[in-house]
């Protein structure tokens, strides 16, 4: 208790120090401003209770869009998403022939949207958000007149409030209050999902069964064709049987490297910034590396955020349409009754893979914007305590291609024994389709 009070006191002190400083802080670049806020998004995502991959995907969608909309009026060659997205109307407009400082607007917008979307985060985290805002404001203000600072700050705040107001009607508002629906009647048919005995969650009720009913960011992403699913068949040699046999055979031959991949991409929301947060992390690494302009940086986060959010909405729609079983149900019954997956089951149906659709959506957006080549090291989990149960360390992952990341994300669930090849193949294909729809929006004039 005292440590928490001390932490809040220190954050308040830092706010006071930055606000009352005798002179302006060191100037900050546009990219450092955007990536600094994105680093904080990852921290808040990781350290906010009752989070989930579904809710986190929604959060980064609205945060990325707000970043973009807070600055796009200052760039005549780019278009707002107002009127292009699913019901987005009435965003604030800047006064014509009036000067604005767009980084200051962005700074205010980030504070407002993060605190609004992650309303359930701790008071300590809210002070952290406020202190970050004050720190950047001191850096950005320089010799600006007070009226310019106030006008720009107010505009960014109003944009964030308008986006958040729109978000309330999508079906996922405050979704952390209803992660598990205890009233849902589980379909029971051959091949249906069963609450796992070996699981990541204590709940025997599936996560967010109605998430697929939420409004997507894009109308085009609400009308995607239903993916094909291999018909149930327990006959050895049948297409359905062979899907699970492939999982079983892979598990028997798991290498140490494959085990490292399986745990690296687990991203349990109780311990990490979730799978969509991991996509945001990769995006942030690329933006830091490429150093794009302010408008292109914010567009990157908007496109990734909305693609990932729509990917999860559709993925959950299809998961509860097919309500399909996982290998931990099929394999012990029809292949090897002693079998147990390397990684524990998540609390929701299998098809298609959320990891695969998320990874592909992110990779397609980044490839569209920056090309396929990207050499970087994912060190997000370095320093985490060794997984003693599985006898595996968290070992950083080097990459030279954005698509190698997406494929490894998908394969990690196959190595973990919780997804079949068809779960991954369909997830990857649909993630690409969703991202291509995002790219087709009228971003530039």
Describe the structure.
The structure is a single chain. This protein folds into two domains: 7-167, Vanadium-containing Chloroperoxidase, domain 2 (Orthogonal Bundle); 184-439, Vanadium-containing Chloroperoxidase, domain 2, CATH 1.10.606. 53% of the residues lie in helices and 2% in strands. The protein has helices spanning 2-19, 30-46, 53-71, 102-117, 123-141, 146-167, 239-252, 256-264, 274-290, 294-322, 327-334, 354-370, 402-415, 421-439, and strands at 373-378, 397-401. Helix 1 packs parallel to helix 5, helix 8 packs across helix 13 (402-415) and helix 9 runs antiparallel to helix 10. The longest helix has 29 residues, at 294-322.
How do the strands and helices of this protein lay out in sequence?
Elements: H1 2-19, H2 30-46, H3 53-71, H4 102-117, H5 123-141, H6 146-167, H7 239-252, H8 256-264, H9 274-290, H10 294-322, H11 327-334, H12 354-370, E1 373-378, E2 397-401, H13 402-415, H14 421-439
Antiparallel strand pairs: 1-2
Helix pairs in contact: 1-5, 2-4, 2-5, 2-9, 3-4, 3-6, 3-9, 3-10, 4-5, 4-6, 8-13, 9-10, 9-12, 10-12, 10-14, 12-13, 12-14, 13-14
